[in-house]
Amino acid sequence: MIRHVTCNIDFLLGKDDQYLGDIFEGDGAEIRKDLEERKANGALKIGAEGCEGFDPVKGCPGHFKCKGCSCELTADYSLRTEGWCYLCDPNITLEELLSDKPIDDGKV
Q1: Which among 9, 48, 63, 74 could disulfide-bond with 5, CB atoms 3.0 to 4.6 Å apart, if both were Cys?
Q2: What is the value of pTM for the model shown?
Q3: Are residues 55 and 68 in the same domain?
Q4: Are 85 and 68 in contact (CB under 8 A)?
């Protein structure tokens, strides 16, 4: 499944109904109505289904595959060492994980 796709709604609205129907596998006229409604509600972008953290204004937040557990996560799960989630990060101690205090996000 493709999950990291961000497409500009204005770009899509510039395409004909046949194009919209083909890429979204549905009725192009209905898809156009949906896109116009999203735009009227302030959305600028549309993403693929399943994109965790997708923002209709900013788009896909970016994702990475953790070098420790191999989970695919949004960038905000990497607090200190790039490419590692906060649970697997070799530079975050167990004490920090168990503490009520926020983990310092000083990148290494």
Answers
A1: 48
A2: 0.58
A3: no
A4: yes
CA-based end-to-end distance of the chain = 32
Residues 22 and 55 in one domain: yes
Strand, coil or helix: 2: coil
Q: How many other β-carbons are positioned within 10 Å of the β-carbon of residue 37?
A: 10
Q: What are phi and psi of 88, to 5 degrees?
A: -100, -15
Q: How confident is the model at residue 100 (pLDDT cuts 50, 70, 90)?
A: confident
Domain that holds residue 89: 63-98
CA-CA distance, 32 to 71, in Å (whole number)? Answer: 35
Identify whether residues 5 and 28 lie together within a single domain.
yes
The average pLDDT across 27-40 equals 95
What is the total count of domains within the chain?
Answer: 2
For position 104, what pLDDT does the model report?
A: 77
Is residue 107 a part of any domain in this protein?
Answer: no
